[in-house]
């Protein structure tokens, strides 16, 4: 049971320490209930219709592939209906790609000579849906057959939590901090873990990552430039991935900047409100100043795309739509055409640290689920198109 009695504390540090302990208990209990019995997340199974949709084939074609033996049957068949695991869908992609006339139809990732794509989501406004957009993009791309590495640059570890590592519960293993730290860093390959989501790996974050800010200030001018650190770490594992998705802290500090240097593309998620517009203006202005400092060292930064993404969009809210229109007028195709719709389905899923892709349609009101999923699909598909364009396709 939770302690609910008023807190008696002799000092402010004791007061806050007790508050932290209570929150810790509440969180641990919540997580244990959500992920009982072993507290690990698992990916649900996908129906045959969903699987055919994901693969871009018809249900009839999928059945034919099973009957002619070109595709192994999924393990789970209930009442004659097939259900596919994420791994089975990925295997199907490999089978289908091998016999496809159009290369990249089922495995759309990098080909010989294509550079790794590194997308950073950043905005110093907390709550602009950076982490929510990041996990949906990761899941969309992984389900589409890309090999994805998620890097959590936020010490608060939201993306890490979405990927099934509960920083509140587990403290073992290396994290991105260990690959970036100044004393005795570990190779990036040791900071990366597989997740329960096929096709998605993660460099997790812990609270200690915030030390990077102070350590960078202390170590200024020694060794490699701080902004090169993440880029070098990524280079050491680059052949394993098609796309890297970086989530950033709600601050424009050294962590965000090392991400910005590593990034080949930038997405600035933004909620369409007047306050967010003003804060985004300040953010972009500060970004320009910091990029100038990096460029003054003789580095040429080149991003394939640098675009805004409207998040928590509510088409029925007129004032917010005026801001969306203003953004589109000012920046045209630098605003992603699709928007992340505000939806209780997304909010509810995130309470369980899930993306909409992890929730089965039958668990929600269908229309609410479809609206949320269609919107996340539209954003994901447009960004995938931008990646393909960057690869010259
Ligand atoms: N499309 C959406 N619909 C409803 N709620 C959303 C949506 N996107 C984000 N949220 C909610 O907004 C809050 C902030 O999102 P988050 O991704 O954590 O922002 P950030 O990482 O920028 O701080 C979270 O509670 C999240 O569940
Ligand atoms: Mg976040």
TrEMBL record:
Pfam families: AAA_31 (PF13614). InterPro entries: AAA_dom, DNA_Partitioning_ATPase, P-loop_NTPase, Plasmid_partition_RepA. Residues 117-286 form the AAA domain. Signal peptide: none annotated. It comes from the Bacteria. This is Plasmid partitioning protein RepA. It comes from Neptunicoccus cionae. The gene is repA3.
């Amino acid at each position: 049971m939770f302690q609910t009695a008023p807190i008696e504390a002799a000092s402010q540090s004791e007061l806050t320490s007790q508050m932290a302990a209570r929150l810790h208990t509440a969180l641990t209990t919540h997580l244990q209930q959500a992920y009982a019995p072993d507290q690990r997340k698992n990916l649900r199974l996908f129906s045959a219709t969903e699987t055919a949709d994901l693969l871009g084939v018809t249900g009839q074609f999928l059945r034919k592939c099973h009957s002619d033996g070109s595709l192994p049957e999924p393990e789970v068949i209930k009442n004659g209906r097939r259900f596919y695991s994420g791994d089975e869908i990925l295997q199907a992609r490999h089978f289908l790609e091998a016999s496809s006339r159009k290369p990249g139809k089922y495995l759309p990732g990098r080909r010989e000579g294509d550079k790794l794509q590194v997308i950073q989501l950043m905005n110093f406004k907390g709550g602009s849906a950076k982490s929510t957009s990041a996990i949906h993009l990761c899941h969309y791309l992984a389900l589409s057959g890309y090999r994805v590495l998620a890097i959590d640059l936020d010490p608060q570890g939201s993306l890490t939590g979405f990927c099934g590592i509960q920083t509140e519960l587990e403290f073992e293993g290396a994290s991105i901090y260990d690959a970036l730290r100044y004393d005795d860093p570990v190779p990036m390959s040791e900071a990366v873990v597989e997740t329960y989501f096929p096709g998605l790996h993660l460099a997790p974050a812990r609270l200690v990552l915030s030390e990077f800010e102070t350590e960078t200030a202390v170590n200024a001018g020694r060794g490699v430039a701080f902004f090169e650190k993440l880029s070098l770490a990524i280079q050491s594992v680059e052949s394993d991935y098609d796309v890297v998705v970086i989530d950033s802290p709600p601050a424009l500090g050294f962590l965000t900047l090392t991400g910005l240097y590593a990034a080949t593309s930038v997405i600035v998620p933004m909620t369409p409100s007047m306050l967010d517009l003003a804060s985004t203006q300040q953010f972009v202005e500060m970004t320009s100043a910091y990029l100038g400092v990096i460029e003054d060292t003789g580095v040429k930064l080149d991003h394939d795309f640098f675009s805004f993404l409207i998040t928590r969009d509510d088409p029925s809210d007129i004032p917010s739509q005026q801001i969306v229109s203003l953004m589109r007028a000012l920046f045209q195709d630098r605003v992603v055409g699709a928007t992340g719709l505000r939806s209780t389905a997304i909010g509810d899923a995130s309470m369980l640290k899930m993306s909409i892709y992890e929730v089965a349609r039958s668990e929600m009101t269908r229309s609410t689920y479809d609206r949320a999923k269609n919107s996340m699909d539209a954003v994901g598909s447009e960004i995938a198109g931008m990646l393909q364009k960057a690869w010259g396709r």
